[in-house]
Design brief:
Elements: E1 2-7, E2 13-17, H1 22-31, E3 38-42, H2 48-60, E4 63-67, E5 70-74, H3 85-88, H4 98-105, E6 107-111, H5 124-132, E7 136-140, E8 143-147, E9 155-157, H6 163-174, E10 179-183, H7 189-200, E11 204-206, E12 213-216, E13 225-227, H8 232-245, E14 248-252, H9 260-268, E15 272-275, E16 279-283, E17 293-294, H10 306-313, E18 319-323, H11 332-339, E19 343-347, E20 350-354, E21 363-365, H12 369-381, E22 385-389, H13 392-395, H14 401-407, E23 411-416
Parallel strand pairs: 2-14, 3-13, 9-10, 17-18, 21-22
Antiparallel strand pairs: 1-22, 1-23, 3-5, 4-5, 6-8, 7-8, 10-12, 11-12, 14-16, 15-16, 18-20, 19-20
Bound molecules: uridine-diphosphate-N-acetylglucosamine (UD1).
């Protein structure tokens, strides 16, 4: 069992290199299944979720190879349509292989996916979309099966702009016959990154990053080389950390436009920032003003940064209201913050965070990936030592976190028992 110990109160100072985006690289890895060559993904972060995705692909017959943040995947010999259930259940994003396998092999059988316990997270929008493209979908005994000799372009309206459903459907539609239009599509930057790689493979996708995505199906795609966009949620976590500790950090490898919903909130709470070409210089302020936050699909405030900002606002000079509209059960970290002295009341999908003068170190749990990041931030603000358990959640999405934190002055120790 691994845990992290953090001694709070250290002033944070220095530079952080932001890694490639986890939420981009997972669909990019799935997309390589659409070709029968060797695709290369540059700036690929080494994370346990990336490892899981590579193992899913290896079971299908692909040959992934990771070397110094370059991931190459040979997908020329796919021979399976049903990756093992224990891998599928490790993370929800494994479900992104459904569209590519269906489009390339005509049949797919998957165990229903797992992932962070942050809500029911159904897959109905993915499945409705595959049916609209002509697939026959059946479910039972914890598995979903889909088949189609050929997929046919269609017009698909998503009831909610689901990131995963948009990605799965773009990938499947790229090899469908005819035109597909996805209305109410997600517009997260990761969707644009996926469309860029697919277009480099020969796909014909227009409108990624808007509500309506148009895809003209092609007969085949070719392997391509692509660099992952920077991880905006990792950057958000370090920004919240600098703000929370009154530290001074320079983050490199960021696309500041992707961070606008976050930097806008940071300015409201009194933090100053200088935005460079691909960097952000942040100067935390000891006094944090309260602010209200509502999570929304991009370009709204990202749900994936909600927990980190809750940690930050727990020591603001007043009350903040955080409303979570994307997931129905994403306040588990609030209970852990309360163990450290935070004053938080949950009412439905809102958390009322009354700032306290300081948190105190305690034994807490990483309840999920971003909840774990919130504990790392809280631990640095707190007086005394904070012990964080269940850190496998954190390892899913933060590359070299301990090394990056040590470099900027965090007093942190990894303990393996
Ligand atoms: C992705 C991100 C995750 C982020 C989330 C929202 C990846 C690998 N993960 O997850 O970090 O928190 O976007 O920004 O990119 N829904 C349905 N039916 C569906 C699909 C989704 O009801 O078929 C609901 C979900 O339960 C949830 C909401 O839609 O309440 C958003 O989910 P979605 O956008 O699909 O998130 P993910 O793609 O799973």
């Amino acid at each position: 069992m691994k845990k992290i110990l953090i001694e709070g109160g250290a002033p944070l100072f220095g530079e952080v290199q932001i890694s490639g985006a986890k939420n981009s690289v997972l669909p990019l890895i799935a997309a390589t299944l659409l070709t029968d060559g060797t695709s290369i993904i540059d700036d690929c972060p080494w994370l346990s979720d990336v490892d899981t995705m590579c193992r899913v692909l290896a079971h299908l017959g692909a040959r992934p190879n990771f070397d110094h943040n370059v991931l190459s995947i040979d997908t020329s010999e796919l021979n399976q349509i049903d990756p093992p259930a224990e891998l599928m259940r490790q993370m929800r994003a494994s479900f992104l292989v459904m569209g590519p396998i269906l489009a390339r092999l005509g049949k797919v059988r998957l165990a229903l996916p797992g992932g962070c316990a942050i809500g029911a997270r159904p897959i109905d929008l993915h499945l409705k979309g595959f049916e609209a493209l002509g697939a026959t979908v059946t479910m039972g005994h914890g598995y979903v099966e889909a088949q189609a000799k050929r997929l046919y372009g269609s017009r698909i309206y998503l009831d909610f702009p689901s990131v995963g459903a948009t990605e799965n459907l773009i990938m499947a539609a790229s090899l469908a016959e005819g035109h597909t239009i996805i209305d109410n599509a997600a517009h997260e930057p990761e969707i644009i990154d996926l469309a860029n790689m697919l277009n480099a493979m020969g796909a014909k996708i227009k409108g990624a990053g808007t509500n309506t995505i148009r895809i003209e199906g092609v007969e085949a795609l070719q392997a391509a080389r692509h660099t992952v966009i920077p991880d905006r949620i990792e950057a958000a976590s370090f920004l919240a950390m600098a703000a929370a500790t009154g530290g001074e950090l320079i983050l490199h490898n960021v696309i500041s436009e992707h961070l606008q919903p976050l930097t806008a909130k940071l300015m409201e709470i009194g933090v100053s920032m200088e935005i460079g070409y691909d960097s952000i210089h942040i100067l935390g302020n000891k006094d944090i003003d309260p602010v209200d936050i509502k999570t929304l699909p991009y370009p709204g405030f990202p749900t994936d940064a909600q927990a980190q900002f809750m940690a930050l606002l727990s020591v603001a000079r007043g009350s903040s209201i955080i409303t979570e509209t994307v997931f129905e059960n994403r306040f588990m970290h609030a209970t852990e913050l309360m163990k450290m002295g935070a004053d938080i009341r949950i009412e439905g999908n809102s958390a009322i965070v009354n700032g306290v003068s300081r948190l105190s170190g305690a034994s807490v749990r990483a309840t999920d990936l971003r909840g774990g990041a919130a504990m790392v931030i809280a631990g640095q603000m707190a007086q005394g030592i904070t012990e964080i358990t269940d850190i496998h959640h954190i390892e899913r999405g933060y590359e070299n976190l301990i090394r990056k934190l040590e470099k900027i002055g965090t007093r942190i120790k990894l303990v393996e028992e």
